[in-house]
Design brief:
This protein is α/β, with parallel strands linked by helices and 339 residues long. The chain has three domains: 40 residues, no CATH class; 37 residues, no CATH class; 166 residues, Alpha-Beta Complex (Spore Coat Polysaccharide Biosynthesis Protein SpsA, Chain A), CATH 3.90.550.10. It contains twelve helices and six strands. A six-stranded mixed beta sheet has the order 3-2-1-4-6-5, with helices on both faces.
């Protein structure tokens, strides 16, 4: 694979041009902070105008962010209150559902979604056919944290015993205790999922950057082999990759299934929920709490921007797209730090 095809090149492959653009955001920031001092040396009035402009600009941005955060929060709360399982019943029989009279705003949006779905030239799927494949990677996190994540999947409104498979990717380099924790999960929850399997990610694989991405990529190969063995149609499978401390909303898988089935060209779509970084809030240092709170606000605000495209912490996509994306993750390792 060419270096140009890798999103983040290896350190030895980063040329002067790459390093320059890597430093550019910091250089611009320092320049803006130093600009009032520089201007004051030539003309204090210019410096005053610049400072006033800067303050007004950020005041306007703060107002916009406050409004957007309220809009995003209200939208998120409305979505959480919806009965997604009932909506899926309409998706299973869209011809009859579009004949209903929906009075609420979301009901009208739902009807529009169904009408658009009926016009699409792609395979019709039943919600009962969908299988949720969840890959969770972990390194050396305590068993208690991992257990809460697994329990959140079991308590989900989605029928995990019939429609969820679980692959746990652990790092072999962390020793026997990590492997025992993974196997303990398999033994304890084997009757709670359609299938659950622990996959050890080997250490020091040639040409691979060790991290969460490479761990999940390795587990995805075993997941793909399992679906092939069971001869399950790939279009029925939605893959979700999660961190070891993710806690999906109880209606998450039902909402994801709704979005996936109705999406145009669903095989080439990636789905992103609104992540909230509060799970381990009181176990983290003060500075990390501030960063986590700011990130949570930013994700809520970003959800109101239809042109904003980003994948954060957890990815959801069809298994066919996972195979296409597999090489990038394997060569590039993880773009984010291990937990």
């Amino acid at each position: 694979m060419r270096v140009q095809d890798i999103e983040i090149p290896y350190a030895e492959d980063r040329d002067f041009k790459y390093k320059l653009f890597e430093k550019l955001p910091a250089l611009i920031t320092y320049f803006v902070l130093a600009l009032p001092i520089i201007l004051s040396l030539f003309n204090p009035v210019w410096a005053a105008y610049f400072i006033i402009f800067y303050i007004v600009l950020w005041f306007i941005k703060a107002v916009v962010m406050a409004v957007r955060s309220l809009q995003g929060y209200n939208r998120m709360q409305r979505a959480r209150k919806l009965d997604w399982l009932s909506l899926l019943k309409d998706v299973d029989n869209p011809e009859e559902a579009v004949k209903k009279n929906f009075s609420a705003k979301w009901g009208r949006i739902h009807k529009t979604n169904l009408e658009s779905y009926l016009k699409q030239d792609q395979k019709r799927l039943q919600s009962s056919e969908i299988i949720q494949a969840v890959i969770m990677a972990f390194s050396n996190e305590p068993y208690e944290i991992l257990d809460l994540t697994v329990q959140s999947l079991i308590k989900n409104k989605w029928d995990s015993k019939k429609h969820t498979v679980r692959f746990i990717g652990y790092e072999e380099r962390n020793g026997k205790a990590t492997k025992e924790n993974a196997e303990r999960f398999v033994k304890r929850y084997k009757n709670k999922f359609l299938h659950i399997q622990a996959v050890g990610h080997p250490d020091k694989v040639p040409g691979e950057v060790s991290g969460k991405g490479s761990n999940m990529s390795h587990a995805a190969k075993f997941m793909d082999a399992w679906f092939r063995k069971k001869k399950i149609d790939a279009e029925r499978v939605i893959v979700t990759t999660i961190d070891s401390d993710n806690r999906p909303d109880p209606a998450y898988f039902a909402a994801l299934t709704y979005s996936y089935i109705l999406a145009k060209d669903r095989l080439h779509k990636s789905f992103q929920p609104i992540p909230m970084f509060f799970t381990n809030m009181w176990h983290a240092p003060t500075m990390m709490r501030i960063i986590a709170t700011g990130n949570s606000f930013w994700m809520v605000i970003s959800s109101t921007r239809y042109t904003f495209k980003a994948v954060e912490a957890a990815e959801k996509l069809n298994i066919k797209l996972v195979k296409t994306d597999d090489i990038r993750k394997e060569d590039n390792g993880s773009k984010r730090k291990d937990n």
